[in-house]
Backbone:
């Protein structure tokens, strides 16, 4: 069918999906992880595989373009936590116009366009 299967099963309960925040780098975190980790750091919360897909899209863009995540913002002096807040609250996404292979740009865009 040409479909890529990302997750092979469902968690048995909400307890199985309990994740911890601040595991990783802010610039590569999905918005829902950033919000929870920033504002509720001692709280156990749940998120699903979409957070990993979002982070994978950030990594894919970095690999394809050779730029670190949100490099223009970093060069302008913004801190990573400021950038993460813009991603979470303002919908900031990285430009895809430098990716000449259109299917790759479309895939990356689809991977980080999920509901928070």
Residues:
């Amino acid at each position: 069918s040409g479909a890529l299967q990302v997750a092979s099963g469902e968690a048995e309960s909400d307890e199985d999906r309990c994740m911890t925040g601040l595991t990783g780098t802010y610039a590569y975190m999905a918005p829902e992880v950033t919000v929870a980790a920033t504002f509720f750091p001692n709280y156990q919360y749940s998120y699903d595989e979409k957070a990993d897909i979002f982070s994978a899209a950030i990594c894919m863009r970095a690999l394809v373009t050779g730029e670190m995540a949100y490099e223009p913002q970093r060069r302008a002096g913004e801190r990573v936590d400021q950038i993460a807040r813009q991603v979470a609250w303002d919908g900031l996404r990285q430009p895809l116009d430098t990716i000449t292979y259109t299917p790759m740009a479309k895939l990356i865009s689809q991977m980080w366009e999920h509901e928070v």
In short: The chain has a mean pLDDT of 79.
